[in-house]
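Q: Here's a chain of 244 amino acids. Please give me its 3D structure as C-alpha cells.
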Amino acid sequence: MASDVPKPPSDDTHEDDLIEDLGLLVPNLELSTGCSPDHLPGNAPSGLAQSLSWRIHSLLVASNLVKPSDLAVTHTEPRTDEGPDEEPPIVTKAYWTLYIDILCISLDGNCFDAAWMAVMAALRSTSLPKAWWDADREAIVCSPLASDARKLALFGSPTTATFAVFSTASPLKQRSEGEDWTLADPDGFEEDVCREAVTIAMDDSKVLRIEKHGGVHLDKAAVKACIAIAHKRWTDMQTLSGAV
C-alpha cells in the first residue's frame, strides 16, 4: 500500500526517482548454489554476489527501464457534491514491487553480463495482474484471470559488454616494453590473470554507463573500440530478442 510507506516521497520528488526511493525493483543475485568451488551451497552471500546485485540495481535505476507509473495501482475518487463538474482526482493507492532473483548455476567468468541478460529476459516476459482499489474492503484486489494481466512496459533495451585487459608490463619494465590485449567476454581464467576490466552499458547508440577498475593500460582509443563492440552486441541482442 502506498499509504503504508514509512517515509513516502515528497510531492516534488521526480517520477524517475520513485523506483529507488520506494525500492520497487529488488534484484538479488545468489552464487551460493555450488556454481564454483568458491561458492558452496549454504554459505553466506559473498562480497561478489552483493557487489553484482548492487551493480544490477544501479543500472536498472540509471537506465529508467521501468517507469513507476507502470507499477502504480490507481483509483479514481468519486465525485463530490461541492464540485460535480470537476474531474475526479486519480490517486495512487499502491505500487507493484518486482523481486528479481538470479541464481548462478555455473560460474566461469563474466557473471555480470550473463546476469543482466537474464534480468532483461525476465522483465520482457513479466506480466502484471489486473489490480484495483476496493473501497468497501479498503484493500487492493487482483483478478485471478491470466487474460486480465498486462505486459510490463519497458522503456529501453540496455545491453552490457565486459572486457578485460591482459598486459605483459611489469614494475621491472618500462610500460612501452610491455604488450596489452583487450579480451571481450573474459572467462574465469582470463579474469584471474587480468588486473584491469571495463564494463560498458549501452542502449542503441547511447552509452549509459562505463565502469572501469584496476590498471592503467586501457587508453581512450581502446575504450572507443570497446564501445563499438558493445554497440555491435546491442544490435545482435535486439535481433535475438526479436526487437528488430
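Q: Can you summarize the key feature?
A: The longest strand covers residues 159-167.
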